Amino acid sequence: MRHILPFAQPGQTIGLFGGSFNPPHRGHVHVSREALKRFGLDRVWWLVSPGNPLKTKGPAPLSRRMAAARALVTHPRIEVTDIEAHLGTRYTAQTLERLCALYPGVRFVWLMGADNLAQFHLWQRWEWIMESVPVGVLARPGDRISARTSVAAQRYRHAKLPASAAHLLGRTTPPAWCFLNVPMLDVSSSEIRARGEWE
């Protein structure tokens, strides 16, 4: 299994950026670069998911989304992966459990947009995720208020790091999370699909 998964050394801090990437776009790259810089990560792995359990309509075929993502990403420390397809995991908690077992000594940070934080309490075993890995939240336009007043934000307000300490997130014992306001590119996968640019 390890030969088809990305390489990471014990002691490294890896940001995990999951999603359907349907389609991937420059906004995903921008967020990944900001996460690398602001959270002090060694690498960011895109986890291009086989499908999103919270969405009824399936995304484009995985092979197409992977090819589009790899064509888009040129940063040497951002790696596009289909880890979940190889692991056979469907939910984030399952994926994190397997990765922590496969990569002893590697520190993982779960990355998400503020829109995901707003509905995080709907995710399977979301509290286990918060208790198991640090979480980095990157604000997107229009999602800041709902994210900050979300169930997850309220439940774990005691574990929130100030933005000034964002670079320490990966080395902080969970539960730990950090909310960053970052300059965002006004582009989304749903808008690209709505324009008919991704069938």
Topology of helices and strands:
Elements: E1 13-19, H1 26-38, E2 43-48, H2 62-72, E3 78-81, H3 83-87, H4 92-102, E4 107-113, H5 114-118, H6 126-132, E5 135-139, H7 144-148, H8 151-155, E6 160-161, E7 177-181, H9 189-194
Number of domains: 1
Poorly predicted ranges: none
* Helix/strand structural class: alpha/beta
Shape: globular
Write the H/E string, N to C. EHEHEHHEHHEHHEEH
Alpha-carbon Rg, integer:
16 Å
**CATH uppermost class:** Alpha Beta
Q: Strand percentage, roughly?
A: 15-25%
Number of beta-strand segments: 7
What is the percent of helical residues?
A: 25-40%
Mean of all residue-level pLDDT scores = 88
Largest sheet: 7 strands, parallel
Ends: how far apart?
A: 32 Å
Order of strands across the widest beta sheet?
3-2-1-4-5-7-6
> Which CATH-level-2 architecture?
3-Layer(aba) Sandwich
CATH superfamily: HUPs
Number of helices: 9
CATH topology: Rossmann fold
GO molecular function, one term: ATP binding
Function: Catalyzes the reversible adenylation of nicotinate mononucleotide (NaMN) to nicotinic acid adenine dinucleotide (NaAD).
Family: Belongs to the NadD family.
Pathway: Cofactor biosynthesis; NAD(+) biosynthesis; deamido-NAD(+) from nicotinate D-ribonucleotide: step 1/1
